[in-house]
What does this fold into?
Amino acid sequence: MHDALDFLFGLHADSHTITAVQLTMRAVAMFFAALALLRLSGKHTFGGSAAFDMVVKIMLGAVLSRAIVAASPFWGTLGAGLVFVLLHRLLAWASFRSEWVGQLVKGEATLLARQGQVFHDNLRQTDLSEKDLLEGLREQGNLASLDQAEAVYLERNGSISVVKKQ
It folds into this structure.
C-alpha cells in the first residue's frame, strides 16, 4: 500500500525527481484538499473580498501549490494549509465576539459623502478620486448624482455602498 501511494503521489520525491503521473495525482489531491479547506474556512471566505478573506485564499493557494510541484513536503503543506484555515476561523470567531478584534482584522467603513457633501479628506485617506466615488454611486446605488444619496461609504471589504434618500 505504501509503495502504491509513493508510486502515485511521490511522497518522497522532490522537484527534480517527481514524475508526470505523480504531479498529476498531486494536483488532483490538492484540488480536493483546497476545496475541503475552503469549505472548512466558511462560506464567507468564498464570497468575501475583504483583505481578511483574500489573505487566506492567496496564502492557501501559494502553500498548496508547493506540494503539487514537490517543492515542499506533501503532508507538511497540507498541515500548513490547515493552520491557515484554522487561524482564519479563529480570527473570524474573535471578530464576531470582539469589536476591537473585528476592527483590527477587518477595519471599519469610511464615510465618503453625506447629503451631497463630499468628504475630501476621507477620499484622500482611502486613495479614491471623486470620479471613483461617482462611479460607485452609479454602480451600487443606481443614482446619477450625490444629491440623491443620503450617504456613501467605502465598506470594510473595499466596496462602495450607497444609502438612498427616502
Notes: The first strand starts at residue 110 and ends at 114. The mean pLDDT is 88. Helices lie at 2-9, 20-41, 43-47, 51-68, 74-97, 99-106, 120-125, 130-141.
